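Supplementary Methods. Inverse-folding protocol.

Structures were first reduced to a discrete structure-token string of length 541. This string, shown here, constituted the complete conditioning input.
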């Protein structure tokens, strides 16, 4: 059985008999019966790809895997292996069940080796509703729960009917917020209750608050209202990909291959270079399909993101779960002043295919749209003139009104971007600036500081400079600023550790809609229902 180690102050793990009794009392349910078909087809797809690759590799030597009577043998082999895979998927479906209570989501899986997973809702980092291409034909979706506690701590519930997945997502977010979901109303005409900010109820409802300050809401719940923020047009997405380094590499690669083939008159070079061309093309195709139709919105239950062409994904990131934000601009985006916004979310580690689509807050947008995406995470930057600070971080050089820059004596360590490296500190966040070819601005809320560190190599010691690093959760954002003056870096290390400790002491609760747990010193909520929360982490600075 896999699970999480209780943190400091967490209740002790019950013994085996108590745990078995508690899980037996749960209402266990199975996923949709069509799930084996949706999962099993991938086996046939992989086999077809392997057969196609072997056929292409044999063409230069005059070998064809499908010539003569061998094609039907290959076909029968693919079908036989596909049926075996489909049968195993059906058996795995019968052995899979899930249950939900006020504190956790439970999942039982395994054919040969049984496994029960438990995802604590107070550690919930994000909830995704994913629809692969085939699942969309059957109206199915997979619910993915990302939980803090490791790279494999999440839970996948799939496949469910689209409506059931949406209802379950709303219920889990309500429970994760600290609200109690009661039984369905006896009257069919009873109104649905939207999940709203603490102390607020939907129209036509009555106050059903428990003694501990948590509201008990009748089920089923209705999705909380949202306010749209950004919507990416397909034309801008295509233009951004054409202006990317991958497109430049693809074009140069094709021109180079064509030139070599013309010069050597060796057609076989095309087959040798085909994997590299497919790599660049596959990356661009993946970016296009993954970021197509991107939309973002803000709601009481968190940041909502929707995107995808072949596989659609609806993400919900509860308040305060983003650990770090990065605004990035490549050299070909300088003219239209486009920016990309990436985030680190605990539980969102690197994907198996190496993509970071689910960690994107904005694939491409203007400066104002990028800053609007940043406001979703940190509505209050903690400075009197946030726009001036951010503009200095995005485009500025050298030390200015807000930033402390890398000393001039260390410019030999970074001849290209030494004028860009620097940092700024506000009441709410640490802002790190770096890069000249690829401009980068990283924002880390003080309460999201995991740990801090200083790095100093032999050349840095010679110039009396050091690299300052903020250790964040795994993701595309690496908060680091290079070659700061050693005294500035040491001072920043000490003061940032103190600021992080103070911010965590005054942050909101993990169950962000529990009124009795919100600290008295907590700042006013700038976005309705988005009281920031946090997780209990320490700084080893």
């Amino acid at each position: 059985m896999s699970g999480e180690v209780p943190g400091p102050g967490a209740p002790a793990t019950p013994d085996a008999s108590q745990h078995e009794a508690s899980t037996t009392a749960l209402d266990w349910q199975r996923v949709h019966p069509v799930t084996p078909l949706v999962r099993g087809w991938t086996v046939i797809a992989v086999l077809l790809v392997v057969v196609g690759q072997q056929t292409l590799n044999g063409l230069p030597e005059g070998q064809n895997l499908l010539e003569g009577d061998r094609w039907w043998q290959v076909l029968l082999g693919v079908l036989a292996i596909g049926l075996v895979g489909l049968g195993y998927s059906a058996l795995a479906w019968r052995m899979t069940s899930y249950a939900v209570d006020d504190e956790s989501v439970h999942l039982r899986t395994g054919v040969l080796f049984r496994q029960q997973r438990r995802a604590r809702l107070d550690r919930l980092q994000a909830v995704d509703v994913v629809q692969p291409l085939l699942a969309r034909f059957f109206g199915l979706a997979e619910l993915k729960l990302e939980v803090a506690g490791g790279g494999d701590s999440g839970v996948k519930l799939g496949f469910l009917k689209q409506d059931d997945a949406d209802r379950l997502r709303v219920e889990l977010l309500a429970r994760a917020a600290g609200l109690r979901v009661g039984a369905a109303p006896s009257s069919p005409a009873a109104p649905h209750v939207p999940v709203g900010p603490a102390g607020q109820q939907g129209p036509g409802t009555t106050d059903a608050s428990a003694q501990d300050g948590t509201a008990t809401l009748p089920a089923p719940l209705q999705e909380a209202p949202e306010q749209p923020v950004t919507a990416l047009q397909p034309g801008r997405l295509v233009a951004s990909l054409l202006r990317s380094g991958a497109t430049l590499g693809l074009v140069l690669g094709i021109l180079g291959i064509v030139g070599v083939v013309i010069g050597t008159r060796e057609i076989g070079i095309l087959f040798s270079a085909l994997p590299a061309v497919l790599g660049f093309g596959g990356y661009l195709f993946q970016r296009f399909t993954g970021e197509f139709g991107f939309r973002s919105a803000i709601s009481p239950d968190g940041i909502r993101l929707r995107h995808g062409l072949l596989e659609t994904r609806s993400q919900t990131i509860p308040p305060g779960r983003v650990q770090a934000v990065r605004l990035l601009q490549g050299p070909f985006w300088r003219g239209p002043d486009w920016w990309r916004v990436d985030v680190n979310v605990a539980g969102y580690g690197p994907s198996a295919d190496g993509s970071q689509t689910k960690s994107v807050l904005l694939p491409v947008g203007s400066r104002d749209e990028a800053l609007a995406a940043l406001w979703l995470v940190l509505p209050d930057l903690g400075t009197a003139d946030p726009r001036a600070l951010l503009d200095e971080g995005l485009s500025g050089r050298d030390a200015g009104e807000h930033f402390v820059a890398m000393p001039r004596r260390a410019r030999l360590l970074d001849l290209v971007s030494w004028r860009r490296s620097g940092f700024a500190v506000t009441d709410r966040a640490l802002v790190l600036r770096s890069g000249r070819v690829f401009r980068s601005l990283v924002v880390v809320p003080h309460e999201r500081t995991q740990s801090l560190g200083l790095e100093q190599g032999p050349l840095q010691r010679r110039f009396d400079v050091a690299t300052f690093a903020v250790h964040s959760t795994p993701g595309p954002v690496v908060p680091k600023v290079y070659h700061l003056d050693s005294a500035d870096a040491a001072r920043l290390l000490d003061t940032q550790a103190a600021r992080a400790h103070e911010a965590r002491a005054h942050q909101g609760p993990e169950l962000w809609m529990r009124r009795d747990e919100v600290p008295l010193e907590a700042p006013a909520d700038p976005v309705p229902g988005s009281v920031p929360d946090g997780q209990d982490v320490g700084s080893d600075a």
